[in-house]
Each structure stands twice: as structure tokens, then as C-alpha cells.
Amino acid sequence: MGTRLERRLAQHLAREKASNRAKDEFLAALSHELRIPLNPALLLASDGAGNQDLPAEIRRDFNTICDNIEIEARLIDDLLDLTRISRGKLALKRSAVDVHAVLQSAVAKVDNEMAKKQIFLRMHFRAMHHHVDADPVRLQQVFWNILRNAIKFTLHGGRICLETETMDKQIAITITDSGIGMTPDEIKSIFKQFSQGAHSLGGLGLGLAISRKLVELHNGSIQATSLGKGKGATFSIKFPVARISDELKKINHPHGSQIPERQSMQPGESV
Q: pLDDT (tens digit, 9 = 90+) per residue, 67-77?
């Protein structure tokens, strides 16, 4: 009886694995095929947007096309990343990376989005040790995903605070927003694939799921907290601090100083 049950269970598990493998292969093929026609379309639209011989109104239309193609490309890239991670085929190119520099680069990528919503950004870089053994591209992807999520759910004129500190041989990165907040049930599912909570604002719900997997691949941890609806949210990320030589420290900071605290605000706003 037991042997028969074990065989049936093994067959069921084999079918589940085969089904998951087929799904991953389908998503990878679909993502690749969807990506191919976007490249020439983006190239043509970019050329049109930068063509000073065209009227300003037409250039703005081309810019809109570029923005939407890039959004579509990001969705496809998310699907590709998800399949690579689930199949254990995502290669990380690790090196000693300055977290503060990567954070500033991620912020630069979302500056326009914050400006459109007149979001006040405050940055406090307090971590004395802020190098980690990481893939800088993937690290920036994590910070960019979390920042874009904060911007998406923060109302016009809201606030985002970005902080770092060193804790128990780890660097802690905290991103807090004044947005719409989350319920306890939403917090439980926020890092699941295709999860968007009760307030979907577009997208596939993959960014946070991918971010968690990338953080874990770097031996880090990530968690989300919120005091409730309308009370904002906080994402806390921790990575082990890397041991680096004095020579590398001088290369990254030739004058021995850390990246200074930054405050970014729109005209007319106050702290």
C-alpha cells in the first residue's frame, strides 16, 4: 500500500516538474520573440524624437512612443529574468560594489518620474561601510524596482526617504514612502509573483518578486512593513558588508569622504 502511494506521489511530482519546466520554457521563448520587434521600433522612435528638423509636437509624440516601448520592454525583461532565476540560469558578475554609488545611480533613473509627481526625496547615507560583494547591474535593478514602486504608490507632492546604516557587519538600506500603504494581507503577498494587491496600477506584479530573488542570490534579505492604509510603506534591505582593501577604498573615494547627504525638493516645498 505504502509503495503504491509513494509511486503515485513520485509520478505526481514528476508531472508537476515537467509542467513547471514547460511553463518556464514557454515564457522564455515568448519573451524572446516579443523583444525582437521592439528594438527596431525603439530605434526609429528615438531617431524621430531627436530629429530637430521635425516640429516639437511630433518630437513629443515620438518621445511618448519611446516611453511606452521601454515600458513594454521592461515587462518582457521581467519575464525573462523570472524564468532565468527559476531555472537557476541567472549569472551574477560579482565585484566589490559601492552601495551608495549604486543608489545614486538608481535615483538618477527615476528623477523624472519624481519630478512629474513633485515628490520630495531625502537621502541620508549614514553607513560607514558600504561596499558589498555584488553584481552592480542587478543591485541597481533591485533599488530601481523598489524606488519605482514607492513612486507609483505615492501621491502627488508626497515624500520618499532613502537611508543607509551599518548594522552587525551588514549594510541596511531603507526606502520609506508616504504613499497609500498596505494591509497585513497585502504585506504577506507583496513579494509573490504576479501579486499587485487590491490597488493595481498596471504592470505584471513581477518587480518585487524579482527583487526579492535577486537580494537572496546576494545573501541578503528584504522585507516590507506598513502601518496600514494611507500610512505609507517601508522596504528594508540588508546585505553582508564586503571586506575591501585600503587601495580600493581610495579608488572609490580618492579624498577619503563618503557620498554626502542629499536632499531633493521641488520649488516651493519645505522640509
A: 788 777 777 77
